[in-house]
Design brief:
It is a single chain. It is built from 22 helices and no strands. By secondary structure, it is mainly α. Helix 4 packs antiparallel against helix 18 and helix 11 runs parallel beside helix 13. About 1% of the residues have low confidence.
């Protein structure tokens, strides 16, 4: 029986987008307060779809490369858990404490399964269809918020929020702004702006999608995300003008710079210089400085510091809530770089960050080609800035985006914009220079090491 491949099936695409949309609606505050992260389980329908198709068709296309990607993504999660288990055992932690830490990672395993399932079904279109589901959910949340508070007032508040660049008083006093404040999806829209602008050349509507993502990004208005966006756009624009050999050197150096920078950043956080600088320039920290100062008592920047185990910081802030030791009314560190260091220790953090940035970059470079590696390092540059002052590292949708986009770009048969005009006499000066650059670097490009046989 001839079974249509899922990439060309409206039913499979429709069901997948619907599952992502339903899970994204769980980020609406009304549902989130009632059910927490439970609605995200709906996205597991993507795994079910992939299994149904696999059993029905017996199509093992791309299974090998997807298994490699699955192991790369899972190994980072497993490494954090196993290192934490060692710390917990040495610290004689209770079984209940250990189970809480391990259970927090369960959504990440589901997340990775969904990513590889989407890659199996839709290849280069997996990231785009995920975007459709998330954007639809985001728009519905905005509409529901406007209906609750009034359309006129909602539009007015949104304009004020943008023009005031997210003034704290407005956010606190506007029911509409609070209703549409969906941190995770807002950060993801920033990732998609970068993806559609630089790494989705085969999509004819990519500028439209980039515009939609930008609107939702601005509507959610995370101030740190604007800084992230500017840096990532600069990285993406610079890398796109390099020839393949230079791109290889660029992503390699960038991955090593991240490692050095993170340890420097931790040092200035621990010394208090970071918060002092922000306070001096009257940058609103919203209580972060109190958390950083409080947690500084529990770690040192030293090779002898072994760490406290995953989720230590959250448990610490929760246990002091409602007591005289409470510093702020939140239980999140709002600094993932600091959190990972405190929990993994000097050497655990080094292994984690080397694996995450250096090894993964090298893997994408050697197995998928320099363009996919550039994509990976660019979107992770965007996320790195958010890690410095927020909790986005294990956000569900953010994690999905930074995994599914490089994977989709690897499958994209058009990894570079093609010139439509073939007659050089009809080309503009810019197009002719672009053609000369490509012809010059044609032999330099590093091809993916996955052969056709491996992909099948």
């Amino acid at each position: 029986m001839n079974v249509p491949y899922t990439k060309n099936s409206k039913a499979y695409k429709g069901f997948y987008i619907f599952f992502i949309f339903c899970a994204a609606m769980g980020d609406w505050k009304v549902i989130n307060l009632a059910l927490g992260g439970l609605p995200k389980v709906v996205s597991a329908g993507a795994v079910g779809l992939a299994l149904i198709y696999l059993m029905w068709s017996g199509n093992f296309k791309n299974i090998k490369v997807l298994f490699h990607l699955f192991m790369i993504y899972v190994s980072i999660i497993m490494g954090v858990i196993l290192w934490s288990v060692i710390i917990w055992i040495l610290d004689f932690q209770t079984v209940g404490y250990i189970l809480k830490g391990v259970s927090k990672m369960s959504f990440q395993f589901l997340n990775i399964l969904i990513v590889v399932s989407a890659g199996y079904m839709f290849e280069e279109k997996a990231a785009k269809y995920t975007f459709f589901g998330l954007a639809l959910g985001n728009f519905v949340i905005i509409i529901l918020g406007a209906l609750t508070t009034g359309v006129g007032g909602a539009i007015s508040d949104m304009i004020k929020n943008i023009t005031s660049f997210g003034a704290s008083e407005l956010v606190e006093n506007s029911k509409f702004i609070r209703a549409i404040e969906i941190h995770d999806i807002t950060f993801v829209m920033g990732v998609y702006v970068i993806y559609f602008l630089f790494f989705c050349h085969g999509e004819k509507h990519r500028y439209l999608y980039a515009g939609i993502a930008l609107f939702l990004f601005v509507a959610g208005l995370k101030r740190i995300a604007f800084v992230s966006m500017l840096l990532a756009l600069a990285v993406g624009a610079f890398a796109s003008w390099l020839n393949p050999k230079s791109q290889v050197r660029f992503v390699t150096v960038m991955s090593l710079i991240v490692v050095v920078f993170c340890y420097y950043y931790l040092s200035i956080i621990h010394s208090g210089a970071f918060t002092a600088f922000l306070e001096e320039h009257e940058i609103e920290l919203m209580g972060r400085e109190k958390i950083y100062d409080f947690i500084s008592k529990f770690y040192t920047i030293s090779p002898s510091y072994r760490g406290k185990g995953y989720e230590f910081c959250v448990q610490l802030l929760r246990t002091m809530k409602g007591t005289k030791d409470q510093v702020v009314n939140i239980t999140a560190v709002h600094n993932d770089i600091l959190k990972m260091y405190v929990e993994l220790g000097f050497w655990g953090f080094l292994m984690w960050i080397m694996w995450y940035y250096v090894y993964q970059t090298h893997w994408f470079l050697t197995r998928c080609g320099e363009k996919v590696a550039v994509c990976f390092i660019t979107i992770n540059t965007y996320m790195l800035v958010s890690y410095m002052t927020d909790n986005t590292m294990f956000y569900y949708w953010s994690s999905m985006a930074i995994r599914i986009i490089p994977m989709s770009f690897f499958f994209d048969p058009v990894k570079e914009m093609q010139l439509k005009i073939k007659d050089t006499d009809e080309m503009t000066k810019f197009e002719r220079k672009l053609l000369e650059k490509r012809e010059k670097s044609q032999g330099q490009s590093r091809k993916a090491r996955f052969s056709e046989e491996e992909l099948w």
